[in-house]
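call fold(seq) -> C-alpha cells
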Amino acid sequence: MTNKIFAFANQKGGVGKTTCCVNLAASLVMSRKRVLLCDLDPQGNATMGSGVDKSAAELTMNDLLQNKATIQDIIIPQTPAGYDLISANSDLTAAEVILVKKQAQPVYLAKALEAIKDNYDYIFLDCPPSLNMLTVNALVAADAVMIAMQCEYYALEGLSDLVNTIKQLQETVNPRLQVGGIIRTMYDGRNRLAAEVSTQLIEHFRNKVFQTVIPRNVRLAEAPSYGLPVQLYDKNSRGSSAYLALAGELLRREKQALAKEKRQKVSS
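ret:
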C-alpha cells in the first residue's frame, strides 16, 4: 500500500484546488484505492463538494486541532463518492488563531495523521488559499504538495512563493516534503497566454507537471453545487474523463517511483 499524504496548496484562490482534491479523490476510489480527504479550509468547500452539510457536522477538523476529539472520532466514513472525509466549517478559524498563538505546534496535524495513515492508500489535505498556520500544518504533515494552477501570469508569481515556502520547510521541519506535481486547471488551449504559461511551466518544472490537463468544463463547474464529484454528477463529461486520466497518471507515477526506490535499495 502506498500510504502517501498529499497537501493540495496554492495561496491564490479560484484556481481549482478544491475541485482537484475532491475529483481526484473520487477517481482514485474508482481505482479501488482507499482515500481520506481532510478539509483544512474554513470555507468548507471540500466538505460541501463531498455531499456533507458543513453546518450540520457534529465533529470537524476544528475539534481535532483544538484537542477536543481524536482523529478517529471525526472521520466521516464513506461519502457518496466512496472516500472518507474530515469536514471543516467556519469554526476552523478559531483553531487557526490558537495555532498562531502556540506557534510551536506545526507538527500537530502530522502526529494526528500518524494514527490512521496505514488505513489509507492516499490522504489528501485541502489547504486554504493562503500560507497560514493551517497550511503550514498540512505541509509539515505531507509527503508531497499537489499544486493546482491556472495557466496565467499572476499564477506563476504565486507558484514561486509557494515553492520557496516548500524549500524552507524542507530545511527545517519536514525534509521529505517535495513538489508532488503541478496540475494545469481550467485550461483553454485556444488561449495564447495559457499555452505560453503552460510551456514555461514544463520548461522549468519538467516532469513535475502532469501531462493530463483539466479543461474548462461546465459540468465540472456545476457538480459542487449538487454536493457531488463530477464522476457522480456526469460521468461522461470532459471533466470526469480528465480526472480519471489524472488519477491513472498519478498511479503510474507512484508505481514507477516505488520501482525506482526498490532498485536503489538493491544496488546499495
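The mean pLDDT is 91.
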